[in-house]
Amino acid sequence: MTQYVGVGARETEVIADVDVCVAGGGPAGLGAALAAAREGARVCLLERYGFLGGNFTVASVGTICGLYVSEAGSWAYVTRGIAEEVAEALKGAGAANGPIPFKGTAVLLYVPWAAKRLFDHLVGAHERITLFLHALVSDVVVEGDRMQAVVVATKRGPQAVRAQAFVDATGDADLVVHGGGPWTMGDAGQRQFASMQFVLQHVDMNAAFGAGPDALNQAIAAYGDHLSRDGGALLPTFRPGEVIGAMTRVRGLDGGPLDVTDLAQATYGELEGRRLAEEAAAFVKEHIPGFTDAFLADTAPALGVRETRRAVGRHVLTGEEVAGLARFDDAIAAGAWPQEYHVSGRSTEYRSLPEGGYYQMPFRALQPQGFTNLFVAGRCISADHDALASTRVMAPSLALGQAAGTAAALVAGDQLTIADLQVSLKEQGAFLG
Ligand SMILES: Cc1cc2nc3c(=O)[nH]c(=O)nc-3n(C[C@H](O)[C@H](O)[C@H](O)COP(=O)(O)OP(=O)(O)OC[C@H]3O[C@@H](n4cnc5c(N)ncnc54)[C@H](O)[C@@H]3O)c2cc1C
Question: Could you tell me which of 55, 66, 59 has the C-alpha nearest to residue 102?
Answer without folding.
Answer: 66
